[in-house]
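Supplementary material to the annual report.
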Amino acid sequence: MIRVSAVHPDSIAQELGLREGTQLLAVNGRELDDFLDWEFLTAEEEFLLHVRRPDGEESEFEIERPLGEPLGVGLEAPRIRRCANRCDFCFVDGLPDGLRDVLYIRDDDYRLSFRYGNFATLTNLKPHDEARIIEYRLSPLYVSVHATDPIVRRYLLRNPTAPEIIPQLRYFAQHGIEFHTQVVMSPGVNDGAVLRQTLDELYQFGPAILGCSVVPVGLTEYSKHQLVREPTASECRAAITLIEERAGVALADRGAHWAFGADELYLRAGVELPRAEIYDGFDQVENGVGAVRWLQQRIQREASTLRGWEGKRIGVVTGTAMAPLMPMVLAPLSTITGSRFELIPVVNSLFGARVTTAGLLPGAAMQQALRNRGDLDLVLLPGESVNDDGLFIDSMSLELLAASVPSDVRVSRDFSDALQEPIGV
Ligand code: SF4
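Predicted assembly:
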């Protein structure tokens, strides 16, 4: 059963009298479990919909509508699938106490993998889930492989019953499912020979594996430091060598680079970032793979639309990780817009200084850094630090932060989004 959370005005759903709280029970006699059932079973022009209204009355509607016309309902958020693993590097273990409850949920959900590109391990799939992945053709999926060796993988996931990943991927691939994969690299466990084996086996698997990224393990002050550590610069360099070897073979063999290192891996290694061309379309940019090159490309493409900023002073808030790389993005942006950009790297006051990613910056730390910056015409905040409800990780709202900063504030994912409209227009 799925519950309606909103009905759009002038929609089919409104005509039918559906409203918030209406339960969507079945389509063509098939019970609805979640948004996937809803989307796939209602994709036809005609279907029979069975609902229960908030007062308990049940009705059936024969729906007939032009293909592609939405029904006009918003659905309540699905119950997230919980993770069956206990990785030593899990982000949840690295959280301090006292944050929003939802942040402590270890999610491992193939549905969100298909929809939003979240990585899933596929260790919690039931036969029903496997059947849905195939029936609904949920492809591509984003899969955390970590290691193809089953013993190493089970150790990393702290899950002695995790199924072997290669047969699992093969089963889905035989039914037309493709995968983007990642390895979170834990030094001394799945780097070195294990990483080489993982890259080899995933590549030899065939074209159903679209690519593999390697991301260095990231920890906070609260992580299990007695069990896991971050890689050193030389360990990151060794991983880059393996990745680039594999990418060279893949390029000659399949015309795509296939293997990628996260920006963070290059940063920690002290190695210059590769060119934009090696990222094969930036499929894993949300995973921090090619993010800097992607930003540079976006800015160049949108250059002609960024008008009216001559002579402005713009502050750019970022985490300390990106600070050394941001000048590569801000220099061309300054040339294009005629503005002066000032980088404002903010230390993470909630997780500790070793957490350097912009996405985890608390509102309070940014507020502190910006409280006396009335000299700026505009401040850009990292888009990944705010959730859909306008809250930072420490639950401070964007509204509250903006009200306490003495200059205009905008949230930005790629600069071109926030600079389309000049200030004061
Ligand atoms: S798979 Fe590992 S890192 Fe991901 S949520 Fe589960 S325990 Fe945490």
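The mean pLDDT is 94.
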